[in-house]
C-alpha cells in the first residue's frame, strides 16, 4: 500500500489528462464516465479497509486497492440535506441556504438556479441519472429532473420519514405521509413496510446497471445515493443474517454487493478503465441507534455534531486508467471538492456563481507536493460556525451540541437519548489526536490567532449566527410560492 503525505514521496505524479478517453464505435473519443455512490449515515469505521469488524466489504476493499483511499475526507455538514446540497453544487450548504434535513412538504429546496454536477456535465454531452435518496426538496420543482438530471428513481427524503413506528407497525397518527417511490417526477408506488424497504438496495442497483448498459456508448454521470444504512434498517433475504454484526453489518454487506454489481457491469461492457468511481457517505453514524448504527472508527461523536465522528467519512476513488493503484492519502479533501474536480477532468465549465470546492485531481494522481486544500469550515445548526480545520489543527468554537457519550444507546431499531452539552473553545492536533481528547490551546496561541483570522473571513463571507454576523455572500434556497 502506497502512502503519501507532506513527508513521504512514494508515488510518482502523472499528469491528469482528459485527452485519454475510451473510444466508441465511430473511433471518436469520449470523456470519462462518472459514478458517484453515496451511502447514508455510514461511519468512518464501517468498511473493512477502514477497520470494520464483524463483516467484510470485499468489493469496496478491492476498489480501494485499485485506486485511492482518503483518510481525511469530510462532508460540509453532519446532516443529510445540507451534506447532499454541498456535494452536488460544490458549495458550503449555508452559502446556498440549505440546512438540517428537509422534511416531507418542505417549502424550500435546492434552488434550481444553482448549477449541479449534472448541469455542468450536461454541457459536455453527458447523460445523467439520480437514483435513491434525494432529500433536497420533495416538491416537483426541486426534484432531480429540474436540477439537470435526465432521469430519476428513488425516495424524495429519508426512509424514516414515514408513518411507521420503531416497531415496524403503522402509526395511528403521524405527521409524515406514506413514503413515495418516485420515477421521473411522479410517484409510482408507496413504500409501506420494512419488507418493501428491504428491496430498495436491490432495486437501486438494478436501475443503476440498466442505466449504465443503456449509456455504454455515451459519457454518463450516475449519482447513486443509497437509502441505507440510515434507519430503519432493512436488508434483502440474500444478506439477512450473514454477518456477526447483525442487521447493520448485513445492510453494509449488501451495499458492498451493490458496488460489486456496478463494477462487474463496467467491466463486462469494457468501460471500467475509463470510468471514475467515487464512494463516500453523507455524514457520520447516527450513534443514538446503538446496534443499528455504524462506527465512527474511534473518532469523537457522530452524526449531528461537528466533531470528527460527524464530519469525517470514508472515501474511495478509482479510475484505473488515470489513478495509480493502492494510494492511501491523508491530504485534506471534502465532498465540496468533487464538482470542481469533475469539471477539471471532463473539461466542463465551473458554475457561474461562487463555489467553495477546490480541484483535488492532483491528489488523485498521487502528486506528493499537492496540497490544494489547507482549510475547511465546519458550520452547523442555524448557520453557526462550530469549528475550522487548518492543516492538522482543528479549532472548536464555543457551542452547544448533542452528545452520544455517557448516554444509554438505543437497541434493535429504537433510538437512545442525547446529552445536551456545551464546549468551550478548544484546539486539537488531529495528526496525533484524531479523537479530539487533548486540548492544546494553551500551548499554541499563534495557531489559534491564525485560525481566528480565518474565522473572521468566514464570518464576513458566510456569516455566523453565534457572533451575529450575517455574511455578505449567502444565497437563497429555492422557495415555493405562497398558494
TrEMBL record:
SUPFAM superfamilies: Alkaline phosphatase-like
Name used for this protein in its record: Arylsulfatase
Family: Belongs to the sulfatase family.
InterPro entries: Alkaline_phosphatase_core_sf, Sulfatase, Sulfatase_CS, Sulfatase_N
Species: Sunxiuqinia elliptica
Residues forming coiled coils: none
Annotated keywords: Calcium, Hydrolase, Metal-binding
Ranges of residues in domain Sulfatase N-terminal: 32-347
A GO MF term: metal ion binding
A Pfam family hit: Sulfatase_C
Region (Disordered): 458-483
Amino acid at each position: 500500500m502506497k502512502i503519501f503525505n507532506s513527508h513521504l514521496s512514494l508515488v510518482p505524479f502523472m499528469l491528469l489528462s482528459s485527452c485519454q478517453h475510451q473510444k466508441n464505435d465511430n473511433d471518436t473519443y469520449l470523456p470519462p464516465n462518472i459514478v458517484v455512490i453515496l451511502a447514508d449515515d455510514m461511519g468512518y469505521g464501517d468498511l473493512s479497509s477502514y477497520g470494520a469488524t464483524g463483516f467484510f466489504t470485499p468489493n469496496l476493499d478491492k476498489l480501494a486497492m485499485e485506486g485511492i483511499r482518503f483518510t481525511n475526507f469530510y462532508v460540509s455538514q453532519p446532516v443529510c440535506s445540507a451534506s447532499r446540497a454541498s456535494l452536488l453544487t460544490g458549495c458550503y450548504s449555508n452559502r446556498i441556504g440549505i440546512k438540517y434535513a428537509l422534511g416531507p412538504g418542505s417549502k424550500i429546496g435546492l434552488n434550481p438556479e444553482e448549477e449541479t454536477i449534472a448541469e455542468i456535465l450536461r454541457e459536455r454531452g453527458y447523460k445523467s441519472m439520480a437514483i435513491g435518496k434525494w432529500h433536497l426538496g420533495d416538491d416537483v420543482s426541486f426534484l432531480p429532473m429540474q436540477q439537470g438530471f435526465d432521469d430519476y428513481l428513488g425516495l424524495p427524503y429519508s426512509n424514516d420519514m414515514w408513518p411507521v413506528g420503531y416497531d415496524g407497525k403503522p402509526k395511528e397518527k403521524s405527521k409524515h405521509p406514506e413514503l413515495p417511490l418516485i420515477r421521473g417526477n411522479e410517484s409510482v408506488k408507496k413504500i409501506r413496510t420494512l419488507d418493501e424497504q428491504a428491496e430498495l438496495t436491490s432495486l437501486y442497483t438494478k436501475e443503476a446497471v440498466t442505466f449504465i448498459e443503456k449509456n455504454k456508448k455515451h459519457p454518463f454521470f450516475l449519482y447513486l445515493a443509497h437509502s441505507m444504512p440510515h434507519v430503519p434498517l432493512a436488508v434483502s433475504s440474500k444478506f439477512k443474517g450473514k454477518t456477526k454484526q447483525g442487521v447493520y453489518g448485513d445492510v453494509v454487506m449488501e451495499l458492498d454487493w451493490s458496488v460489486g454489481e456496478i463494477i462487474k457491469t463496467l467491466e463486462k461492457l469494457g468501460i471500467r478503465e475509463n470510468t471514475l468511481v467515487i464512494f463516500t457517505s453523507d455524514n457520520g453514524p447516527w450513534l443514538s441507534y446503538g446496534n443499528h448504527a455504524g462506527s465512527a472508527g474511534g473518532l469523537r461523536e457522530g452524526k449531528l455534531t461537528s466533531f470528527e465522528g460527524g464530519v469525517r467519512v470514508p472515501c474511495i476513488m478509482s479510475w484505473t486508467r488515470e489513478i495509480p493503484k493502492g494510494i492511501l492519502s491523508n491530504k485534506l479533501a471534502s465532498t465540496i471538492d468533487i464538482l470542481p474536480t469533475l469539471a477539471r477532468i471532463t473539461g466542463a465549465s465551473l458554475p457561474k456563481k461562487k463555489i467553495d470546492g477546490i480541484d483535488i485531481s492532483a491528489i488523485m494522481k498521487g502528486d506528493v507536493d499537492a496540497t490544494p486544500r489547507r482549510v475547511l469550515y465546519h458550520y452547523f445548526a442555524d448557520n453557526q460556525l462550530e469549528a475550522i480545520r487548518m492543516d492538522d489543527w482543528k479549532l472548536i468554537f464555543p457551542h452547544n451540541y448533542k452528545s452520544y457519550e455517557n448516554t444509554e444507546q438505543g437497541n434493535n431499531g429504537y433510538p437512545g437519548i442525547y446529552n445536551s452539552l456545551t464546549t468551550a473553545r478548544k484546539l486539537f492536533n488531529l495528526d496525533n489526536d484524531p479523537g479530539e481528547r487533548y486540548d492544546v490551546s494553551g500551548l499554541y496561541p499563534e495557531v489559534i490567532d491564525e485560525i481566528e483570522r480565518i474565522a473572521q473571513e468566514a464570518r464576513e463571507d458566510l456569516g455566523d449566527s453565534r457572533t451575529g454576523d450575517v455574511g455578505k455572500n449567502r444565497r437563497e434556497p429555492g422557495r415555493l410560492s405562497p398558494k
